[in-house]
């Protein structure tokens, strides 16, 4: 397994949601997969995928990078949607335009080259939810759906005040949208515990159908590392 350089989150490591989505393809479960990231996933590096009992593990040499397994409980919690127009309005106030820990992130980075990246800009609603309009790219596939679920949930946490990174993500992709569709991606903060933020996210089709949903744990970086 190799993660191409364009799928970065922080400048020198892969986007967590995309990495989790790549690993989830090895998990044969229609109920979804849970992926735990142990180390920053390296880019453009051959990674060794190993199966141990019901667990999938990815190694960079002797370093365990991530593990995946079928979800233990069905994913049922969705973030209520808003209209496309409301998502467009919310995106105008995306805080990442002015304060972004990783401004070249493949999913939500405003400094991506024109025409590259998912360009998901999740703006905060009055109730704390985030909403992002998403024009689906031509190369849409399950790992991109995991990526789309990633950052809108993360931006429901106080990420602009202190960098957070994805630690664990459970997701299920029910269907892929059509390239060119205008989807809405929602995020919400469920709770915070210390350095951990527990978030939800949902991708909605233009007709309002749920295409994919996730719950995730984001972890604030230690202040000493910032």
Report on this model:
This protein has 226 residues and is of the alpha+beta class. The chain has one domain (5-225): Acyl-CoA thioesterase, double hotdog domain (Porin). The protein contains three helices and ten strands, in the order αββββαββαββββ. Strands 2-3-4-1-7-10-9-8-6-5 form a ten-stranded antiparallel beta sheet. Strand 9 and strand 10 form a beta hairpin. It is globular and about 45 Å long. The model has no long low-confidence stretch (mean pLDDT 95).
In brief:
Helix content is 14%, strand content 33%. The protein is an alpha+beta fold.
Q: Please, how many helices?
A: 3
Structural class: alpha+beta
Let me know the CATH homologous superfamily. Answer: Acyl-CoA thioesterase, double hotdog domain
Per CATH, what is the topology? Porin
The oligomeric state of the chains shown is single chain
Low-confidence stretches: none
Task: Describe how the helices and strands are arranged.
Blueprint: H1 16-24, E1 33-37, E2 48-52, E3 55-60, E4 63-70, H2 84-92, E5 123-124, E6 130-135, H3 142-154, E7 164-173, E8 182-193, E9 196-204, E10 210-220
Antiparallel strand pairs: 1-4, 1-7, 2-3, 3-4, 5-6, 6-8, 7-10, 8-9, 9-10
Helix pairs in contact: 1-3
Task: Name the descriptors.
226 residues; alpha+beta; Porin; 10-stranded antiparallel sheet; 3 helices; 10 strands
